[in-house]
Specification:
The protein contains 5 helices and 6 strands. The chain has 147 residues and is of the alpha+beta class. The protein has one domain: Alpha-Beta Plaits (2-Layer Sandwich). The strands form 2 sheets. It has a 4-stranded antiparallel beta sheet. Strands 1-2 form a two-stranded antiparallel sheet.
């Protein structure tokens, strides 16, 4: 099965808004360019929550709690990319953070999905404390690194 590759560059917003992803290139799934799995989640603040409150809760409560409950996530690269005010120029966006969970393999991603299912209620309840669940969007990407 050929993988779809999502390159997260300055065109991130366009890609997530529906622009077609680029096709897999020869050699992407081999050797040092082996593909990994990435879960991308866009989260917006809960109405009435400041940027500081949102970031503080995510960093000090939610992210550590998720890593504790899901060992596969603890082994993954877990990034939260907050969009500062100066980064909101151009097309309007309705989210405050781009979360990336990068897994070393399909097996690690599958393991995290199993663990996530077991703690789905905790995730839903905790996210509702700081984010707007109605604006949450997630995407799965196959990552290929060149260079």
């Amino acid at each position: 099965m050929r993988a779809t590759v999502l390159f997260l560059t300055t065109a991130l917003i366009a890609v997530l808004a529906g622009a077609p992803a680029m096709a897999d290139t020869a050699g992407c799934n081999k050797g040092e360019n082996a593909m990994t799995k990435k879960l991308i989640i866009l989260l917006a603040r809960k109405p009435g929550t400041t940027v500081e409150q949102f970031k503080s809760y995510y960093e000090t409560v939610h992210a550590p709690g998720a890593r504790e409950r899901m060992p596969a996530l603890a082994r993954a690269e877990y990034r939260r990319n907050y969009i500062p005010e100066e980064g909101r120029k151009g097309a309007p966006i309705d989210f405050d953070v781009v979360t990336e969970m990068i897994f070393a393999s399909e097996a690690e991603y599958a393991q995290m999905q199993k663990e996530r299912a077991a703690v789905a209620q905790w995730i839903a309840e905790d996210v509702a404390k700081f984010a707007d669940p109605g604006k949450t969007r997630s995407y799965v990407a196959d990552v290929c690194v060149s260079g």
